[in-house]
What does this fold into?
Amino acid sequence: MSKVPPNHTSLTRDAVAQYWSTLELQGSKQRSGDADRGKRAAVTGGKQMNGFCRLVQHLLLENGITDEDIHIERTLELPGYFRPTKKWDMVVVHKKKLIAALEFKSMAGSFGNNFNNRAEEAIGTGADMRLAIKKGVFGRGARPWIGWLMLLEESEDSMRPAQIKEPHFPALPDFQGKSIAGRFEALLRKLVSEGLFDSSALLMCTRDGGQRGLYTEPVKDLGMGQFLSSLAGHIRKSL
It folds into this structure.
């Protein structure tokens, strides 16, 4: 029987708090008069979401995966269909069989500019992986679990209705009058419903609350519980 850690909520809170503390530490390294470089360091540091990797690692170990099968900081490259390889945030390989590949992403500020970048990244990653699987890149009959988790800062800018430019054709109703948070909700649902990912999750937190590990799950079907349950169920069928 697949297992989801009973303390996954507290582990998620720890991961959220670690994200903000790491982001703050990276941002504080900026030097006087070099704000642009400091902001970039805070965004590209690469360690902010490691707490979520550890949370999923805990679940994997509870469900029969060994430490040797779990790749977090190294050997994260997987072949694609449109590109030679793509570096994932977490890869699980058991007895030379790809079990799972996960992406943990975040956004704090610069919402308007960055939503499309995140959307294009997720769509491209999912489409490339699905074709690679279909074409037998990971072996005949391979059915790895693919997951995408998004941590979004809750603020006035991310919660107000976002402007849409529609010079030729109207945007889909899914996005009309929606905030950046609403756009992510639509995006993540579609990534799963259209088969690009097996599961996705959307977590939100304010900057102040996040530093204390406080977070919310805007919609139940994109919550952490279902995300972890989906992965645990896949592992049970794969081993």
User: Anything to note?
Assistant: The mean pLDDT is 92.
